[in-house]
Amino acid sequence: MSSFLLGFASATLPCKSSMMIASTRTATRAHSNQGASNTFLSSKGFREPFLHLLRFPQNNVRDIAPSQDMAIKDMDNRNCRDVGVAAPPTIMDMAREWRDGVGIIDFLERRNFLITGATGFLAKVLIEKILRVAPNVGKIFLLIKAKDEQAAMQRVKNEIIGCELFICLQQKYGEEYTSFMLSKLVPVKGDIQESNMGIGNDSFRQITQEVDVIVNSAANATLDERYDAALAANTIAPSWLLSFAKNCKKLSLFLHLSTTYVNGERPGILMEKAFEMGESRIDSSTQSKLDVHHEISLVSDLIETLPPNEVPQKLKEIGLARARMYGWQNVYEMTKAMGEMMINADRGRVPVVIVRPSVIESTFREPFPGWIQGYRMLDPLILSYGKGRLPGFLVDPDTVLDVVPADLVANVIIAAMAKHGITASPSIDVYHAASSTVNPVMACDIFDYSRDYFAASPLTDDQGDEIQITDMEYFSSIDSFSSYIQKDIVEKSGLSKEIGPNSNPKQRSRLEARCKRMAESIIHLAKLYEPYAFYRARFDSWNTRKLMEQMSTKEGNKFPIDLRSINWEDYFTNAHIPGLKRHVIKKASSS
């Protein structure tokens, strides 16, 4: 369950990230002996491949009319949407009428893109939107993990071209759909965790000659990941990709996807501010400064000195300990923050935009409401509650859970990409795609919406009987929640009644083991989510709101980014939970 996290699909990463760490460590040591003007990773470090990576699986707020009814009744009742439903015109809207706007469509047309993490949830939503609104876009190179080019092409056909998300394009182009998609999408066999992205010479030459924008959507979002794997994917790989970007002759923008939770545990309003190298989330007067070089060396030393059978668990423990030491809640947040530091420190004159979404969930409107790929952060809780397996949880009911639909995040990416790609200024700009300051939704609201939905449309058990749920119970300590959930599991399993002269010892033993595993799994999830269940910070989105104001009325309708327009009850009951049933539960059942 630890991989259902913060809007990113959990990456499948090496269980021996040691070679990547060791290779980078060598470069780090080389750097320490050179002048301060050198880049963080030496050119030698970038050239050396990772040979032994084994893979394992506040202001200016105006009233917005509520969104239209988004109910989805069946698979054939979806409306493909090219524009959002506009709110009644305001003074701001009328002032936009004479503006040219950002120039989003003009920017997209004939531009060439390189996208990493291309088969992930958010990347697919981004690709679909670009192809739907800008069919004259140039090539979109997709970095795909595969054994060869043929396998990379097959993955694109199966996971992107054949994906239901692209149904609007399928309907538009009909028999020409596949040929249209293949005329735009260029699969590239590679791996962001390898030198030069593991790209072959021919593809390397083509990409470096033609690409205008690089979008880094690859990440490992597992909250309790091994420290080496998280460092490799979230800290080192983005720096390697930036080095690759410097070879691109036409590059006008490097866009990196991060997370609002790089801001750590600090309370208050957290701003859209780029990280400086060594910046932590604690008072620097009471703690030594964070040294990214040292963190990489530390992991390398541990891998070299620890007994092999102790490495996996120790690397998880050290990752959490180091994150907590410097003010982050887990290894994911810390390594993503260090990835931002690496980019800022090494960007030179490359124009950089960092987009930080909060908790990304299913689509709000486009191309149709409720599309989702796999479990996101809230979904294990919502579905377990609907199945009657989670009648209570460790969470403050008044905690604001910062949620943002995937299609709005894609629109922020595209709008920011156009604004900064046009000017190509060698700056770094940060955008939060977050709802907590402009349209907050609390934990109790989400569970109330879920309760109302499942009361009207209950899930069924293995016997086909409707599952009845009760109001969610809230717990403020892990001890009280653990006692509660263990007792609840035992009672529902019938284990408490399996006592008597006729009870079957073997059957009882199996049932006890099953109950124990279920309880341990839920308690582990509660511990992982505890920092977010009592989170007190909110994320400023001033830059994103300013970007919205710079868009023309037509752009605002075609690329809506205003989270204030969302009616959360409408979203969860008419889009998100029906989408979970259709795209997650049914898919899991069929497989």
Structure description:
The protein has 591 residues and is α/β, with parallel strands linked by helices. It folds into two domains: 318 residues, Rossmann fold, CATH 3.40.50.720; 153 residues, no CATH class. It contains 21 helices and 15 strands. The strands form five sheets. The protein has a seven-stranded parallel beta sheet with strand order 5-4-3-6-7-9-13, with helices on both faces. It has a two-stranded antiparallel ribbon with strand order 1-2. A two-stranded parallel ribbon has the order 8-15. The chain is globular, with a radius of gyration of 24 Å. The two termini are 18 Å apart. It comes from Eucalyptus grandis (Flooded gum). Belongs to the fatty acyl-CoA reductase family. It catalyses: a long-chain fatty acyl-CoA + 2 NADPH + 2 H(+) = a long-chain primary fatty alcohol + 2 NADP(+) + CoA.
Concise account of the structure shown:
Residues 115-413 form the Thioester reductase (TE) domain. By secondary structure, this protein is an alpha/beta fold. It contains 21 helices and 15 strands.
Essential attributes:
single chain, about 600 residues, alpha/beta, 2 domains, 21 helices, disordered N terminus, EC 1.2.1.84, oxidoreductase, Fatty acyl-CoA reductase
Using DSSP, what is the number of strands?
15
Largest sheet: 7 strands, parallel
Structural class, from helix and strand content?
A: alpha/beta
Low-confidence stretches: 1-5, 7-16, 28-77
Give the total of domains: 2
The total of helices stands at 21
- What's the CATH first level of the largest domain? Alpha Beta
* Helix content range: 40-55%
CATH topology heading of the largest domain: Rossmann fold
What is the terminal separation in angstroms? 18 Å
What is the residue-averaged pLDDT? 86
**Largest sheet, spatial ordering of strands:** 5-4-3-6-7-9-13
